[in-house]
Amino acid sequence: MHHVIKKYSNRKLYDTQTRRYITLEDIARLVRDGGDVTVVQRDTGEDLTPAILSQIVAREERRSGGSGHSDSGDGIQERGQALLDYLRRTIN
């Protein structure tokens, strides 16, 4: 399923597919679950997908960097890798 996310000037993100506001966490979940996501600036239509996905990847990396838990690290690393793979596909 393809989700078009509109980013408003107040930084809110709106999923036009589900017709509800979502968070960066929700976008990350969509990507991890194999969904296609396009993020656009509502007013200009500018494609913000690479910037938003980079922001999500950076957040995932920050979270995994300080945990120190070896059992949860694998799951975080897999989620981060899935986001990076999606980011690479989107940019290419």
Strand order of the largest sheet: 3-2-1-4
**Rg over C-alpha atoms, rounded to the nearest angstrom:** 14 Å
Kindly report how far apart the N and C termini lie. Answer: 20 Å
Beta percentage is 15-25%
Total helices: the number is: 3
What's the overall geometry? globular
Sheet/helix structural class:
alpha+beta
Mean pLDDT reading: 82
Helix content: 40-55%
> Would you list the SSEs in sequence order as H and E?
EEEHEHH
Biggest sheet character: 4 strands, mixed
Number of strands: 4
Q: Would you identify the regions where 5 or more consecutive residues have pLDDT less than 50?
A: 67-71
Describe the structure.
This protein has three helices and four strands; from the N terminus they run βββαβαα. The protein is of the alpha+beta class. α2 runs antiparallel to α3. A hairpin with a 5-residue loop joins β1 and β2. The chain is 52% helix and 20% strand. It is globular and about 35 Å long. A four-stranded mixed sheet has the order 3-2-1-4.
Question: Secondary structure elements and their pairing?
Answer:
Blueprint: E1 2-7, E2 13-15, E3 20-22, H1 24-32, E4 36-41, H2 49-65, H3 70-91
Parallel strand pairs: 1-4
Antiparallel strand pairs: 1-2, 2-3
Helix pairs in contact: 2-3
Summarize the structure.
The chain has 92 residues and is an alpha+beta fold.
Label this structure with key terms.
alpha+beta, 92 residues, 3 helices
